[in-house]
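Example A, followed by Example B.
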Amino acid sequence: MGLLLGGLIAYSTNILAEPIVSEQTVTTKGEQTTTVKSPPPSAIAPQFSAGNGNDLCTVGASGAVQTQILGISVGSTFTEENCIRLKNAKTLYDMGMKVAAVSVMCQDQKVFDAMMQAGTPCPYDGKIGEEAKLAWKMHTDKTPEEENADDVESKRLKALGIIGGLFGSLLFF
């Protein structure tokens, strides 16, 4: 009986193990077109580094605009005058020329006024202390003029306005 049962299992396994085969014929007719599209054009604004370890007294401004037809990028730098004054004063001080360093700083109206109010007037023609104070009183026409911060800011705004105007006009293309 065991032999008969084993034979039936072996026979049924063979039947189940046979693959089912079906045949199909597929016929297609058509055309295939491949279109390669390039990435969109892009205007890249130039980078101006004013910091990041650079010992520069400049401030950078840049911008870019891209339309379907035309792309433009522009940039500019602005010199920071007070930064130059500070660097010059520090260099003079490091070379041991302390009076000259103070004189450079005194070219700024705010520093000049602060020095006078503190009772330590800015040097005048080699004179310091009370002699310098009297000399400044006699030569008021040589005191530093207050720098107009609006002039510096207006230059920046004018440059940014030009850049913005260019970009705005390109949007109409």
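Example B, a separate protein, is given below in the same form.
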Amino acid sequence: MTNSTRFVKAKVDKYIQLYSKFGKNEGTTYDKVLEVVILNGGGGYSTSSPPTITFSPHPPGSSNINATAIANVSVVNGPISSITITNPGSGYTTAPTITVTLPGGGGAILKAFINIQKRRVFEWDLENAIEINENALIQVVDRVYTNTSTNSVYTMRLLDISTQSVVNTTDKSGIPNQPSFNQGKVIDIGYGIKTTPNDIKLEIQPQTINKIVISVDEGISKNNGINGDIEFYISLKIVEKEPSVIEFGSLNNINTSQI
């Protein structure tokens, strides 16, 4: 009788390290006037007829909206005390300049700041495709943000990978035109500084993974990007499940699954 040996290649966990600067996205979207700072309030302005302020306009024919604001003067013949933005405008690629128009007074210097919003979808191509022959689990095992707000929650959603782990729900809030919470599968959610381990594991079906596409949003249900020029690092882990073996015995059928 000849003995034979069968060698089985064990499944090895795969880690995918993702860095925002290496991901493909369409860059930064500059949009609205977020704040107007008074560098010098000047003096001699009227409280009843405060000066008019105007922002440098968009080019003629542009579909973008010009910002508008009102200067407030709280002391007779005093300086500009505050600015009220009445319309933040849209489509700015650089911060507009501000002109202060009399009557009365002078010397006021104002500066506009616009919000910076990163596009939320990032895409990384894999140098070597990952073949999933059986079911597998994918999860974020580590992530780090820099330049983030300590009070903001950041949500990562996995796109373009098939999974049946998440059961979607219908929107019964009655709020019109709100973004779909089910766009992509939430794979990580929490504050910028991670204080608890991530236990979200998604089962993925047999497929070939050539790229990773993840959306990152500031907030829970919003889909409008990230405020500020942040960077982030994500480490994804893929654990493949071994094929299931069904053993037929004299008493009962025994289903043994090796993970």
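On Example B: The chain has two domains: 14-27+119-167+179-245, 29-117.
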